[in-house]
Amino acid sequence: MARPVTVTYAVWPTPAEVAAAAAECFAGAAAAAASVQGVARIAISGGTTPKAMFALLADRSQPYFERVPWDKLQLFWVDERTVPPEHKDSNYGMTKAAMLDHVPLPAAQIHRIEGELEPEVAASRYEADIRTSFRLEGAETPTFDLILLGMGDDGHTASLFPHTEAINELGRISVANHVEKMNTWRITLTWPVINHAREVAFLIEGAGKRDILREVLLGGYDPDTKPSQLIRPASGKLTFLLDAAAAAALPNDTGNAPPYTASLELK
Ligand code: 6PG
Q1: Cα gap 241→110, rounded to integer Å
Q2: Among 51, 153, 157, which residue has the most ligand 1 atoms within 8 Å of its CB, making it the best to mutate?
Q3: Are 27 and 67 in contact (CB under 8 A)?
Q4: What are the tens digits of pLDDT across the range 106-149?
Q5: Quick check: pTM over 0.90?
Q6: With contact defined as beta carbons under 8 Å apart, do 146 and 25 qualify?
Q7: For residue 73, how far is its CA from the centre of ligand 1 (angstroms)?
Q8: Whose CA is nearest to atom 15 of ligand 1?
Q9: Burial of 179 by CB count in 10 Å (0-12 exposed, 13-18 middle, 19+ buried)?
Q10: Neighbours of 45 (CB within 10 A)
């Protein structure tokens, strides 16, 4: 049974403004968590959309760098491709070039998924790293302060692809997931862990995502075909940061052109 959530979607005219809103979301969540608990634990996605946000966070002339408590930030990944860190497809590699090489985040606070290892070994080592870093006991679930997700044009998020094993994984923190259609393995956080986060936000841009986004939010509930539908946070709240092209098929009862914010209830 899917948990009801309130979806808030903020729609910006351009990808550049989505990147700024995402940087604001990251900096705000990091500062708030660090001020309350002395540490901020954030998990980020790969792909292409987050790259501009990373560059803004690392840019000292922008209003975000100074607000991120880099000394108290523990950075994690939502998923990774089974490639070495220097490979062009590496999510870690992309983030390193766009942000990590330009910010004072100590190496011990960077929790990379070791995509170069045998997939199940990489998934187990990542799970062990998370358990240690969160000081988890027994079957406790980690509570990330913020998890930033993307969505593929097939409705996947993290590396939870349609009709793959990981969709049915309820107990593990991270798993190796075979993606037949891409003939590859991915390492991914599981959806119960994502739903356990204090805050979850999707960053989605471009007309290529318009129809799938409408299907995920307003279409029939079929997470095996549209895995992004599995994301129903325990907080009851889910945020989407969108550009106008991606949001073009969503209801806009505000009567305003972007930027606007609207919401809908997922039952
Ligand atoms: C990955 C991601 C994945 C991504 C979507 C969207 O490793 O590819 O983590 O879940 O968020 O594929 O990717 P784009 O931002 O490139 O559209």
Answers
A1: 25
A2: 157
A3: yes
A4: 999 999 999 999 999 999 999 999 999 999 999 999 999 999 99
A5: yes
A6: yes
A7: 23
A8: 49
A9: buried
A10: 22
